[in-house]
Amino acid sequence: MMVSLLLVAALVPLRSDAFSTSFTRAASKHAKYNSGPLQMSSSSSALNISELRVMVNGMPGPMAVAAAEACLRKGLTLSPVAMTGPDVESCTINVVDPISGKSGKVRLIPSTEIEEIEAAVEGVKTANGADNLLVIDFTHPSAVNGNALFYVKNNLPFVMGTTGGDREKLMADMEGAKHFAVIAPNMGKQIVAMQSALEDLAERYPSAFSGYKLKMTESHQKTKADTSGTAKAVIDSIKTLSDDDFEYDDVKMIRDDDESVAFGVPPEAINGHAFHTYTLTSPDGSVEFELKHNVAGRSVYAEGTADAIKFLARKVKSEPEGKVYSMVNVLEEGAME
Fold it and tell me: Catalytic: 220?
């Protein structure tokens, strides 16, 4: 895995030809659900991770598998069942963490088999305790909102690593249900810290880059369907600083292998990377600021996701009612290892 974070300010000669962290947390008229909000006793804040079971939905997708491996590496136990895509046949896979050697067999059930999934969930809860089953979601943008409602209905605290979907509705639904969840566009600790710093900068110095124009290019593996949620969050902060009219649709998305390599992605990381470059240029073209964060591989996100599960499990044990948390909350509590 390679991770790089670079901020460059360049003074360039004047020339005549020079040229997704903000989720909206909607207010409070929300849909009702068949079952009530998940509420746990605050009588014990102790966490025995050996009791926990983590249902990693989205396998055999590579990000979901990486998250499952990270859970094993951090001493967590995988749920023996998980939800997979509607086009994947029911099967059992063996997840093996290549670092620790720990493994777990997981039966994958297509998302179309709702009754079977719900029966399996109840079986895991009965065997391990109703509040000891938590979910990691690395599925597909089109499934985000429906999956979240499924987790509410079945009282499953979850970490949503999948980007896309209707984020405003997602936040409104989860807050209205008072459901335990960690929802964030990025699970990497260092990138979360960078996003938080940018948000603070935008709040303290709005329009400090007034008149500057923004350009943004991001490269991901070709299987990533949507614009990066991290890119959207960073763009929101930069727009506050620059008052530019840049829109998400203006992002240049690279999903072609040759273009990605030309953009600087190592060939060995083509199938799993996130390279982002944001450029702010002054009105006269004489000053240019560039922000880069480049990640080759998936482990930085997988590790953060496993940390978020531990954080959420503690909240389920200690808080009287559910709440939506961000990765900044996880970071601020010192819960990222």
Answer: yes
